[in-house]
Amino acid sequence: MRKGKRVLRFILLTVYLIFALFPLIWILLTSIKSPMEVYAFPVKYIPSHLTFQNYQRLFNYAHFGRYFKNSLLVAGISSSVSTILASVAGYALARFKNKWILPTVLFLFFAQMIPAYLIMIPQYVMFSKFNLIDKLSGVILVYSGIGSAFSTIMARGFIARIPVELEEAAMIDGCTRLCSLFKITFPLVLPGLSAVFSFSFVNSWNEIFVASLFLNSDNKMTVPVALYSFISKAGVNWGFLSAGLVVALLPTIVIFAFAQRYIVEGLTRGAMKY
Amino acid sequence: MERCRSEIKPRHPARFFLYAILPVLVMVSFLVVYPTIRGVIMSFQNYNLYNLHDVHFVGFKNYRTVYTDSRFYEDLWNTVLWIAGSVSLQFVLGFILALLMWEPFKGRGIYAGLVFYPWALSGFAIGLVWSWLMNGTFGVINDVLMRMHVIEYPIHFLSDPKWAMLSVILVNVWYGIPFFAIMILAALQSVPKSVVEAAMIDGAGPMRRLFGIVIPYIRPTILSTLLLRVIWVMNFPDIIYGTTRGGPAGATETLSVYMVNVVFYENDYSKAATVGVTILAILIVYTLIYIKTTSYEELEL
Questions:
Q1: Count of structural domains within chain B
Q2: Can you give the residue range of the structural domain that contains B281?
Q3: For a tag on chain A, would you pick the N or C end, based on fewer CB atoms within 10 A?
């Protein structure tokens, strides 16, 4: 009975593993097949020879390197900004006790519920007045603002979990508040803050609607906008698009691999993220 | 420690507090709250791409346009289907996955990494990935089903109105299982093993233990996760945008996809704002109910 149960569990977990990984493996396989084999039916599962022509086309003709750099810049800067602002605000909200805490947290809670796509039109109208349309800086600003509400709630959760006694002990030993902040609290909360950063990086990297609306010229496009432009043009080249998808998905998979433990902790204990 | 001494102590705690939270409050007010209010105002105007210089108030005209169009009600129904189908299946399968992973086994950490990764992926890109898998002419899913003699002819999963909604829901289920599994697995860790074992000794079968002990114990997590997930799935046009963009013939157009389509294909910003305000109203009512049914404690964390 006990053994039978374990075998059943093993089988079910294996089935789910295949289910979870198959789409990614399949898109990887498609990206290194020759066009003949991409469009074969019945499907040819093992490519007879590997080709990297899709990747070559992606970077040589389609400027995917530039889109990748744009995305890296946008996601990197916006998540750095929102993480820094959020850790300062999160610290104050976790360590101070006054009547402004609850209203502020509630305000941030409601603000982070408003999804980006819902307010992109008024943002577009506002930003066109400031001449921030079709500029990476405009999108960076939007992502920083959208991300900072949730990041603050999450950072606060992580900081609140670090006992204040540790800081007080350091202060008794002759450390100032700022000193204890940097020497005691900051190192302890670093894993939490890396989760905050990963969250907003992933969200910014994946965002498509604001980016599509704001960024029009070819040299400003981010990765999702570029992928969208590949399918908008008549006839999808699936081998080529698959190569683009592999490159688009890779960064967040790498981030997840490194920060998984903290992300899971942030998801489950760092308050309300979906 | 010596080096630290020269640094300043906040002599005015209130001012320190204010300076610390001000940047975030300004950012959020300027980039989230103000645009939201502005969006509400726009829904009463005639703002569109062809009419940028004669913007004025038109009363409830946009609301009449949206609410008298059967498209709105079809999309509302699609939204209900999309939410109910996605969330229930994500939950049940995520729960099963969490139960399977509850008892530690060798390599559980690596296994978690390998099956939880979809959480970090772009919904839009995942939509594209699955539209290749579900392709009606060259798709691998049709190939597998035909080789197994389940079907005789390929199914046009995403271009056949009969199949499209079910297909996009299944993609969303694949995408959302990890989220539920992560949340429920974490909650399961808090269930005391001794209670479960005591019930086992008392002769309670696995189903009794699950429904009598485990589920009641993690009920708060289940409830808040489900309620929050509904909002998130409602505001998640990404997967549908990567697969069908609301087609065929509106079969998969949810309210959020409707709004995005109005922005990108009709360029009627006021109409889009009207749909947006409608979504926002639903969101607010829902959130208030959520807060009523749970408690402030969760916000406090």
A1: 1
A2: 69-300
A3: N
